[in-house]
């Protein structure tokens, strides 16, 4: 298998990545106050049911007629993924790479670039007991001479050879950075990982973008991870 060595080296990185970023809040409480004359004011304190599409709002309603937005959250749709809502409280910091692509990442995340030019972003730690953070990586492979689909299929094959508990959630062509690419989403229960990867060719180079975390914590930072994913684009 061509480039199998590189594929398996990436696999080792995926398998050892784990996270414990705190449990997501799943409560959904409301308070109701009776106003003289029979009107009521209902204020949503926290909100858990999400469609992961568009923007959800928390509202205050008086007398059943006037509605005022008091909080806004941004959510993202990911086919086959668990759902979560993360408040879009931090702006995106923009990075423009001379190779012809750009992306943004939340200001609350950390970002580093290695000597090969690859980018690694990590979510904030949410408690003193956290050992790892969820992460998002942008990796370039200038030596790949096939298609994005072929790379993804080889990677999935390599994963299946090493992990007999591999659970494939999604495998399909999709838009990545404004170009047609290939996505995989999968879980490896034995390694406690949940990963969404995208592969796309640009200017003769294969780009791999992915968000990964533990199975339980993957949904906690999913909205932020997809903000990075959706901001990734090519300029040429």
Structure description:
The chain has 236 residues and is of the alpha+beta class. The chain has two domains: 176 residues, Protein Transport Mog1p, Chain A; 45 residues, no CATH class. The chain is built from three helices and 14 strands. Strands 7-8-9-13-12-11-10 form a seven-stranded antiparallel sheet, with helices on both faces. Helix 1 crosses helix 2. The longest helix has 15 residues. The two termini are 32 Å apart. The N terminus is likely disordered.
Rg value: 20 Å
Biggest sheet details: 7 strands, antiparallel
* Average pLDDT figure: 73
Question: How would the global form be characterised?
Answer: globular
**Order of adjacent strands in the largest pleated sheet:** 7-8-9-13-12-11-10
The CATH architecture assignment of the largest domain turns out to be 3-Layer(aba) Sandwich
Please indicate the percent range of residues in DSSP E strands (runs of 2 or more).
35-45%
User: How many beta-strand runs?
Assistant: 14
Order of helices and strands: HEEEEEEEEEHEEEEHE
Tell me the number of structural domains: 2
Helix/strand-derived category reads: alpha+beta
What is the end-to-end distance?
A: 32 Å
Indicate the CATH class of the largest domain: Alpha Beta
The DSSP helix count reads 3
User: What level of helicity do the residues show?
Assistant: 10-25%
The stretches of 5 or more residues where confidence is low (pLDDT under 50) are 1-87
| CATH topology name of the largest domain | Protein Transport Mog1p, Chain A
Q: Can you say what the CATH homologous superfamily of the largest domain is? A: Mog1/PsbP, alpha/beta/alpha sandwich
């Amino acid at each position: 298998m061509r480039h199998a060595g590189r594929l398996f080296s990436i696999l080792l990185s995926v398998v050892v990545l784990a996270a414990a970023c705190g449990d997501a809040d799943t409560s959904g409480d409301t308070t109701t106050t009776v106003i003289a004359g029979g009107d009521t004011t209902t204020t949503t304190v926290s909100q858990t049911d999400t469609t992961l599409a568009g923007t959800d709002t928390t509202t205050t309603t008086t007398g059943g007629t006037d509605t005022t937005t008091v909080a806004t959250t941004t959510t993202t749709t990911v086919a086959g993924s668990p759902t979560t809502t993360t408040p879009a409280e931090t702006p995106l910091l923009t990075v423009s790479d001379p190779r012809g692509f750009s992306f943004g990442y939340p200001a609350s995340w950390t970002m580093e670039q290695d000597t090969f030019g690859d980018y690694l972003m990590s979510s904030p730690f949410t408690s003193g007991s956290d050992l790892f953070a969820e992460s998002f990586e942008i990796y370039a492979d200038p030596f790949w001479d096939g298609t994005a689909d072929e790379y993804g299929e080889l990677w999935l094959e390599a994963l299946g050879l090493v992990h007999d508990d591999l659970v494939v959630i999604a495998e399909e062509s999709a838009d990545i950075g404004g170009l047609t690419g290939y996505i995989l989403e999968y879980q490896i229960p034995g390694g406690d990982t949940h990963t969404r990867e995208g592969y796309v060719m640009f200017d003769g180079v294969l780009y791999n973008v992915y968000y990964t975390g533990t199975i339980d914590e993957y949904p906690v930072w999913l909205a932020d991870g997809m903000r990075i994913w959706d901001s990734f684009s090519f300029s040429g």
